[in-house]
Amino acid sequence: MTDFVTLAHGAGGKQTAELIDRVFKSHFANPNFTGDDAAVLPAPHGKIAMTTDGFIVSPRFFPGGNIGKLAICGTVNDLTCMGAKPLYMTSAFVIEEGFPMDELEEIVAAMEKTAAEVGVQIVAGDTKVAGKGQVDGVFINTTGVGQIMEGIQTSGTLAKPGDVIITTGDVGRHGCTILLARDEYGIEADVKSDCAPLWNAIHAAFEAVPEIHTVRDATRGGVGTVLYEIAEQSNVGIRLDASRIPVEPEVRGVCGMLGLEPLYLACEGTMVMIVPEEKAEKVLEVLHSQRYTENAAVIGTITEEQKGRVVMTTEIGSETLLPQPGNELLPRIC
User: How far, CA to CA in Å, does 76 sit from each of 81, 115, 170, 235, 253?
Assistant: First the structure.
């Protein structure tokens, strides 16, 4: 087998079979993985959640992960937001002719490892090879199906005045990592993406507090964009305390140099949770005991006032209106 992906690997013949056996089947093998036209799967009981996403991050390898890990985390976390245990995933690759085979295998191995961490099975997939220059390296599309936990209902429409806003970790780290990895500004900083699958941590929180109202994945647009979406969906106001928002010093330093707001940088392992005030301490207690959510913090509250707006109390005690999200800051972050 060659050291690079060729057009023949996408033609459906011998080379395609070799690619599937060597790279995909060797890493994704499980009792439900199929070589047929569709996977035949045991049906879960109750309601299911289903999501799909495309991943075209540039660069495809970055501190803390790669496009493969990102693809699993993105889909697992979207299901998690709905209180759904990730069960099955499909994965479709579009690969540029000439793509290094060892890089492809590293990406697929990261997918295998991340999927195993939360017990989700990759059961079917597809591979297409595009001509040189038609695709930038590799694009991945994933679709996931999960079983919603009994008694759980979450939505951006369910935030209520008096609720508390929690972030499950520090903010803006993935977006900052990708910015630095592109090496366009000549800034050196020890920043690593927060890319992580959060099902286990959020599952534990749901088990302890089924009354959680909203869980949202703060990916493109970051925490700030998610909060504006919730404010609009639930027709409420949001008040943040800048002094309580967890931001790594290195991220804060980079944002200070470039005039960026960490709240609008992408996260890939941090979620926004809206919970009843009386349940907030219990949720924090659980999150602090789980991997990836040790730095969870209360950052604000839901209010009746200034509906549809996000107001922030600054570290010097003044109030400012957080600007509504505008132009895309970093294209191709996920």
Answer: 9, 8, 19, 28, 31
Query: Which residues have C-beta within 8 Å of that of residue 100, sequence separation ≥ 6?
Result: 3, 4, 5
Q: How far apart are CA 261 and CA 331, in angstroms?
A: 16
Tokens standing for 4? Answer: 């690079």
Per residue, what are the HEC states of 164-219?
EEEECCCCCHHHHHHHHHCCCCCCCCCCCCCCCCCHHHHHHHHHHCCCCCEEEECC
Sequence-distant (≥ 6) Cβ neighbours of residue 54 within 8 angstroms: 139, 140, 141
Phi and psi torsions of 161, nearest 5°: -55, 135
**Could you identify the residue written with the tokens 């209106």?**
321
Closest CA to 283 of 214, 196, 194: 214
CA dist., res. 255 & res. 163, Å (int): 29
pLDDT one digit per residue (tens) for the chain, 334 residues? 679 999 999 888 888 888 888 899 889 999 999 888 999 999 999 999 999 999 999 999 999 999 999 999 999 999 999 999 999 999 999 999 999 999 999 999 999 999 999 999 999 999 999 999 999 999 999 999 999 999 999 999 999 999 999 999 999 999 999 999 998 888 989 999 999 999 999 999 999 999 999 999 999 899 999 999 999 999 999 999 999 999 999 999 999 999 999 999 999 999 999 999 999 999 999 999 999 999 999 999 999 999 999 999 988 888 999 988 876 666 678 8
Residue 307 burial (10 A CB sphere; 0-12, 13-18, 19+): middle
Q: What is the DSSP letter of 317?
A: S
